[in-house]
Amino acid sequence: MELLGVYFMKTSNIGIRVGAFVLIAILAVASWITSGALNLEPAKYLSATAFVGSALFTGWELWVWRFPWVQLVPGVPLSVRGTWKGTLESSWIDASGQKIAPRDAYLVVRQTFSRVHVTLLTNESKSESSLAAVTKTEGLSVLHYLFFNKPRMKHEAISRMHHGSATFEVSGKPARRIAGRYWTERDTRGELDFDRHSKKIADDYEEAVSFF
What's residue 60's pLDDT? Predict the structure, then answer.
């Protein structure tokens, strides 16, 4: 996912450079049509134009869209970036035939203006999103994602790897709570409720625990 992000940024920067080149070319051709002389003066600003365009795009993609006043602009997704602590309650029955008790869970959201990546951490497993988005429907923000769950090695015997999907409603502006449901290909489902938030991004379960 990080590689996809780098690729996206590089592709966007290339697009900005091409756009700057096209704009300057249009200005040069326009001057030739109107005056009969080809004016290449704007060409010397090509590098500066591309640099400024790239800087503005990067600033918006990574930071500006998250400013509180920008969050009020229609079309800007609600920021849910950070590490969230909550509880997970699953319908899954383990090998002994027992339903697992509710447990602590941490939702780590890496988010820019155009991309979202979600990691769900528990003491037994880690889920990574393959596709995720924050959308708005009738004023309500919703986090949707598809995931792949991989248990820790010591739990593989009782919990195999699996795919699933999740849908969470986000409450508050700024976001104060994330709650919803998930489904898996193991024909299990469950509910998750996150009401504590840290702006920091956790890399693993132990680090997430330390934030709270």
Answer: 87
